[in-house]
Amino acid sequence: MATILIIDDDDAFRDGLAETIQDLGYTPLEARSGEEAIERLREEASPDCIFLDFRLPGADGLSVLETLRGTAGLQDVPVVMLTAYATSDNTIGAMRLGAFEHLTKPVGRDEIATLLARILATRTNTPAPQAIHRFADETPSREPQLLGISEAMRDVQKRLGRAAGTNSTVLITGETGTGKEVAASVLHRASARVGGPFVAVNCAAIPEDLLESELFGHARGAFTGAHADRRGRFEEAHGGTLFLDEIGDMPLAMQAKLLRVLQERQITPLGTNRPLAVDVRVVAATHRDLPAMIAAGTFRQDLSYRLSVIPLHIPPLRERVADILPLAEHFLAAVAGPSEAARKHLSADAQRLLVGFSWPGNVRELANAIERASALAPAALLTREDFTFLFDPAANDAYAIPAGLIDLPLNDALAQLERALIVRALALADGNRAEAARRLGISRQSLYTRLANLGLSDS
Predict the structure, then answer these.
(1) How far apart are CA 275 and CA 311, in angstroms?
(2) Which of 322, 411, 339 lies closest to 374 in space, CA to CA?
(3) Buried-most residue among 49, 108, 154, 434 (CB within 10 A)?
(4) 311-361 pLDDT, tens per residue?
(5) End residue of a domain, out of 287, 313, 339
(6) Residue 219 CB neighbour total at 10 angstroms
(7) How many structural domains does the chain have?
(8) What is the CATH number of the domain that holds 374?
(9) 372 near 333, Cβ under 8 Å?
(10) What is the spatial distance between Cα 330 and Cα 147, in angstroms, rounded to a whole number?
């Protein structure tokens, strides 16, 4: 029979969880603090799983987790972190230290049963279902944060936390505006390289004939205009992280040179024959479809393998609707600054509009829309009228061809466009399907059929 240790100073919660675990056929053990738990574990056999609260008297949950990971016989025990106030920081911190899962209180019986089945199944390599997560308020920070409460973003945060504990190369994919550079920055800050530099390079913004010099540096006289020695970005990032944004726009010739550097961990500045060893973690990102580019011969498959040791995909905002309103409130608070009195709020109709919009520019577009509406709205309450510019092509040329559609196959682009137009019409009609059908110029039956085909019939 599996033994489950519960470390939590909330007597009522701990007793309730112990009762649930016992009802599920497992043996519960209890401790009120990390110190009590460590002492008990020195005297008893290792449990099959540990439920560990973040906030404890004495050492907090992360400190206890770190101690467990450094204690012989306990390094591999699955640890489930519990908190009443989940944030991106404590989620990433827990996963970086090797937590198996991160749950927000209260935790239901079915969720516990599923999770324990999954944990015990991992010991026999049997797959089990994922749990669902939520979190509360984020701690304010001046640093970029990878925010989100959707299950999709929780998965991104967890994978990022696990990647932070390694030095492996990471490839971040996602549409324009999803936050790939933010993810790279968070990864750097969560890693052991946080004391080193974070150097970002946009491969698409540098002319092809200058990219090699930009990355690897050059000696004086290496080419016309090279009046002095110059360190490249690899050398500048020594001991830290080099973020190569828009790696899909790198020319083929340069791809071959980058592959060699990743293999040998050495660079040779232009105009020299002296290889220079570099200690750099490379994080690359692209919004392009690399498999399609490989098939077309415009991106090297071997470089793709070398870059995607740890792949990290950030889903578009339209696929994580649960994040839209929390992000909007976050951006409203950021615009207002420290003055709570200056902060504006969203009306119910504005909320419905934002949730129904397709956001082709993703989080970046949402942030810009919130800042614009907040700056121009005459009242403290933002209504749907304050966001009409989202549906005005003349006000924003980007809507002529949304950024998220440009590189898609025609059928995929048409399907996404159809979805966006239907969602837009429903938002403008405040959910009235008859009115939405009239705006689209189709019959109600045709709208119902299209909604079913797009999986929107329950929206």
Answers:
(1) 29
(2) 339
(3) 154
(4) 999 999 999 988 998 899 889 988 888 777 678 888 888 888 998 899 999
(5) 313
(6) 16
(7) 3
(8) 1.10.8.60
(9) no
(10) 9
Which tokens in the block code for residue 275? Answer: 């290889």
CB 314 within 8 A of CB 147: no
Q: In this structure, what token pair is assigned to residue 187?
A: 């990864």
Any domain includes 89? yes
Dihedral, 395, 400, 403, 405 alpha carbons, nearest 10:
150
How far is 180 from 176, CA to CA, in rounded Å?
A: 8
CB-facing half-sphere around the CA of 217: CA atoms within 13 A: 22
Domain that holds residue 57: 3-139
Beta bridge mates, 80: 51, 101
- Whether 40 and 70 map to the same domain: the answer is yes
- Which amino acid type is present at position 410? L
What rounded mean pLDDT belongs to the chain?
Answer: 86
3-state secondary structure of 408: coil
Percent of the chain with pLDDT over 90: 50
Question: In this structure, what token pair is assigned to residue 398?
Answer: 């980007």
The helix or strand, by DSSP H or E, that contains position 28, with its residue range, turns out to be strand 27-31
Q: Is the pTM of this model over 0.70?
A: no
